[in-house]
Amino acid sequence: MTKIPFYDMTRQYRALQSAVDIAVRRVFERAWFILGEEGQRFEEEFASYLGAKHGINVGSGTEALHLALLACGVEPGDEVITVSNTAVPTISAISFANAIPKLVDIDPATFTMDVNKLEAAITARTKVILPVHLFGQPADLAPILEIARRRNLKVIEDACQAHGAMYGDRKAGIFGDAGCFSFYPSKNLGAYGDAGFVCTNDAEMADRLRLLRNYGQRRRYYHAIKGFNSRLDEVQAAILRAKLPYLDENNQRRRQIALYYDRLLEKTPVTTPPRAKYGTHVFHLYVIRAPQRDALMAYLAEQGIETIIHYPIPVHLQEAYRELQMDKGSLPAAEKAAEEIVSLPIYPEIRDDEVEAVAECIRLFYK
Ligand SMILES: Cc1ncc(COP(=O)(O)O)c(C=O)c1O
């Protein structure tokens, strides 16, 4: 039986082995492991790729969001508006900041924040709007930024799944007060361990983030504020530097695979992912809506094809977030998506014949 895993990281390593090995050896030979030249160069290179003035490496995407919230001045009891159909860490970061997540529903077409629901969720305690660029597609930023400006709120973009995605003619992540990225290994730009990044055009915000990630110290043993340890190590920074030059071509390949899936699935009852007019999708995930979703997944698994649901239970219905007191039915579009969606294997090194095999099995299931 053919086995088609959801993602095969070994193919990527084989494709980039010499560049990655050289980068890692460079760090070992220099024997400087924390906050050094590789990290600084990567901050400059990724910020420049995004078109942002400042880039700050941190330990993970979750920490990027947490520290960005603190750098925006979020205090205990403040409210942060975001969506429920996201990776739980979006919300964990809000909890870490002792703030309260206010979850609004999504636009069913893009799976991102429904901007029409935003204004009604704003209260006197609201500090930040936190749109999530889910699956590789930006949220509709223009109306979000307009509301934020009018209501004097900060905007933090969760771009953890959207490296290189465009909103209009600029990169997602650079529109808000801060943009947060994860380099979890399977991301469009992934490290070989945990890693994260915040970009901003605000020099003061950048300064606060640099303090927050390094015990609050500007100079060794002189602590200006209470901080954390959220530093990216030099090995990961060097690997990210080696991989960054391939990001655009890998995103292009992801888009090509997505188009191929679209075409192969045309005559099936599944709904392929719609693309918003305002931007470009970088297909971190290829997410379809499928009738009889669970039976389809079971059938594909029997054929050796691995699929995943991103995410099966929206945050407001998770046990850990019972305190939000949001019952089933409170966010109908997010809940409906969770019942219908499934992600198919997509990554730059997947072969066309594997994509064809996945689509063929889906066709056979609905026959
Ligand atoms: C949308 C979103 N936000 C936040 C995170 C957290 O990133 P990390 O796993 O690097 O902490 C992730 C990654 O899993 C994510 O997909």
Short summary:
With 367 residues, the protein is of the alpha/beta class. Helices cover 39% and strands 16% of the residues.
Report on the structure:
This protein is α/β, with parallel strands linked by helices and 367 residues long. The chain folds into two domains: 9-104 and 111-245, Type I PLP-dependent aspartate aminotransferase-like (Major domain) (Aspartate Aminotransferase, domain 2, 3-Layer(aba) Sandwich); 247-366, Aspartate Aminotransferase, domain 1 (Alpha-Beta Complex). A seven-stranded mixed sheet has the order 1-11-10-7-6-2-3, sandwiched between helices. A three-stranded antiparallel sheet has the order 9-8-14, with no helix packed on it. Strand 8 (166-167) and strand 9 form a beta hairpin. It contains twelve helices and 16 strands. The radius of gyration is 21 Å and the shape is globular. The site of pyridoxal-5'-phosphate has 15 residues, from helix 3 and helix 4. Residues 60-62, 86-87, 89-90, 132, 158, 160-161, 182, 184, 194, 196 line the site of pyridoxal-5'-phosphate.
SSE arrangement:
Blueprint: H1 9-30, H2 37-50, E1 54-58, H3 61-71, E2 79-83, H4 88-96, E3 100-104, E4 106-107, E5 112-113, H5 118-121, E6 126-129, H6 141-151, E7 154-158, E8 166-167, E9 170-171, E10 178-182, E11 196-200, H7 203-213, E12 217-219, E13 222-223, H8 234-243, H9 247-264, E14 279-280, E15 286-289, H10 293-302, H11 332-340, E16 341-344, H12 352-366
Parallel strand pairs: 2-3, 2-6, 6-7, 7-10
Antiparallel strand pairs: 1-11, 4-5, 8-9, 8-14, 10-11, 12-13, 15-16
Helix pairs in contact: 1-8, 2-8, 3-4, 3-7, 9-12
